[in-house]
Amino acid sequence: MYADRINALPPYLFATIDEAKAAQKAKGVDVIDLGVGDPDQPTPSHIVDSMCDAVKDPATHRYPSYTGMMEFREAVADWCKESRGLELDAATETLTLIGSKEGVAHIPLAFINPGDVALVPDPAYPVYKIGTQFAGGEPHIMPLLEENGFLPDLEAIPKDKLARAKLMFLNYPNNPTSATADVKYFEEVVEFAKENDIVVVHDNAYSEMVYDDYKAPSFLSVDGAMDVGMELYSMSKTYNMTGWRLAFAVGNKDLITGFGKAKSNIDSGAFDAVQRAGITALSSSQQCVADMNTMYQERRDVLLKGLRGIGLDAKAPKATFYMWVPIPDGYDSIGFSKLLLEEAGIVATPGVGFGEYGEGYVRFALTQSADRLEEAVARMEKLTI
Ligand SMILES: *Cc1c(COP(=O)(O)O)cnc(C)c1O
């Protein structure tokens, strides 16, 4: 019944986890869910209020612009300048997205012909690979190894794949490893992309979720990056707006144009009222973001101490709300997650759910209160591992 592209999809591990979680809940277990990367806090009220006003204005009720509301894209350009010094032309170098997942899924349609290669990291957000396959492209896996700081080893990409490669996906601060990339690495990527004629798509969904005075560099701030790439920013994690579906792409004007052409034939843009709320988010005080980071950092420190206390080799992430933790000997990632769920009522995501190179790790999301994290740690202390 289904097309090959659907039949070829790997079994969806997250559905299995959901079932196992539901089964524990049905048994009356007080489950602590550190599985999903979805902020637990509400959208800040000034953004919600702005949406309420916007939705009452009939001007927002009609089809939006394909490329996005000009005022939103101007707010995007201003925010990019203010936060990271990027000089962008709102009209040609920005594009509104209905979430960056939508963007990632549609980008290959604009740049990949059947048989072309896209370079995708592993472990990773699954959409890079699947979006490539949906467009008829061939994903080439770039392993993210701890010994390389979870950065792809560009030298290790085979020449024959490189000859066919059109696109490269990167994501720093990274989900699931929480690794960060420095400017020097981005400079290498730009040089590599120019040499090999590759379009770079940097998914910067965790751009603002940073700790200990760390600031995540923008890929586009590197010399030459505007010639080869685009960067995707999302309102989802930054402003607790995952349900609203709003993000934006910025970067090279020809790339933005091509991407926009693919999109305009598929979707009809983001709801104008949501974009108006987005303007409020981007152009108001960013104190809400700082407060959120303080909260996540406190949670991070609670979980870090707890995991180290039970002998796990956990490291303090500088960014993202994930902890990517090597699992104890004698388990694989699914087995260890199963133990956590069944013996401690804790949901953590097995690393292998993000790709084969995620094996050997579990991901904890800091999406529960510090108290709940303390409780999770107390339960883990009772485990015999
Ligand atoms: C959460 C996340 C996104 C955000 O996707 P939206 O569609 O904007 O909600 C994008 N990329 C990665 C790696 C993520 O973890």
UniProtKB/TrEMBL annotation:
Record has Transferase as a keyword: yes
Enzyme Commission numbers on file: 2.6.1.-
One Pfam family matching this protein: Aminotran_1_2
GO MF annotation, one: L,L-diaminopimelate aminotransferase activity
Cofactor field: pyridoxal 5'-phosphate
One of the GO BP terms on file: lysine biosynthetic process via diaminopimelate
Domain spans labelled Aminotransferase class I/classII large: 30-379
Keywords annotated in UniProt: Aminotransferase, Transferase
Enzyme class: transferase
InterPro entries hit by this protein: Aminotransferase_I/II_large, DAP-NH2Trfase_DapL_Desulfo, LL-DAP_aminotransferase, NHTrfase_class1_PyrdxlP-BS, PyrdxlP-dep_Trfase, PyrdxlP-dep_Trfase_major, PyrdxlP-dep_Trfase_small
Family: Belongs to the class-I pyridoxal-phosphate-dependent aminotransferase family.
Classification via NCBIfam families: DapC_direct, PRK09276.1
Protein name: Aminotransferase
